[in-house]
Amino acid sequence: MPVPTYDQFIEPILRFLAAHPEGATAGETHEAAALTLGLSEAQRQETIASGQATYKNRSGWAHDRLKRAGYSSSAKRGYWQLTDTGRAFAQANPAPLSAEQVEHLAVNFMSVKLKAAPDAASLDESNDTSTPIAQTDLATSSPQERLNQAILELRTSVAGDLRDSLLQASPTRFEHIVLDVLHSFGYGANRQALQQVGGSGDGGIDGVISLDALGLEKVYVQAKRWQSTVGRPDLQAFYGALAGQKAKRGVFITTSGFTAQAVEFARSVEGLVLVDGKRLVNLMLDHEVGVSSQLYKVPRLDSDYFDESLG
Prior knowledge:
Elements: H1 7-18, E1 24-25, H2 26-36, H3 41-45, H4 54-68, E2 72-76, E3 79-82, H5 84-92, H6 99-107, H7 143-168, H8 171-184, E4 194-196, E5 207-210, E6 218-224, H9 232-244, E7 250-254, H10 260-268, E8 272-275, H11 277-286
Parallel strand pairs: 6-7, 7-8
Antiparallel strand pairs: 1-3, 2-3, 4-5, 5-6
Helix pairs in contact: 1-2, 1-4, 1-6, 2-4, 7-11, 9-10
């Protein structure tokens, strides 16, 4: 008998977490859902291509849907907890959820992306034009379109997990991660050329990157693991710290976003680059910092091979 699909894990996870308002580990939740669904030992032993147990993978996707609906959160690494909204939903909807409610949770939040603070300004000049395929169109879409949809969905899910992990990191660890990200796309001749400075009395400087072997050209970094937006005064203070170092280049990185006034200030001065939470997570995904990727071989007919006119 096959392992239940991920939508069937949604309600068991919702009910288990509702019964544990203080939260529970992902492992405990996996097992509680498996017990509720009555999984056999054979079903528990089934794995996906990566080697992960299928039921744990599907339990994880079910929790992903609850997170995107705003009903649950990763309170800390490997620890799940319903939000106030999620607890209210569970109380207002006694078991069992209707088939329509389960489908709504499983399908309608597939394309929900990272939420920015309401007063955060966009740093991107162009809008994200990637549009998920509607569930009703999946059956008639091509395999390539469905594959692209799956990749988009996986990327969005991992982006959310990355954001949670960044917010849970200590300030010192976050500064280290930021320097790893900057090094991953070419800053510094080697990792040793990126120096972590953060701490009390750092003068607004959390890291220094030497662009050449002699350290003649440097980029100064400030890294803020914040949930509230960064305002113009914060950037002005950082810019003042750069002036104190006689620096020409600075990068201000935050897990949150920047106000419109902060973005306007950065664009009015030379050598100041802003990286918000969305851009930081995308850089980590693109350069595989804190994430790993899996290669799939997609076969495609080589029609030239069968063309006899080519000899």
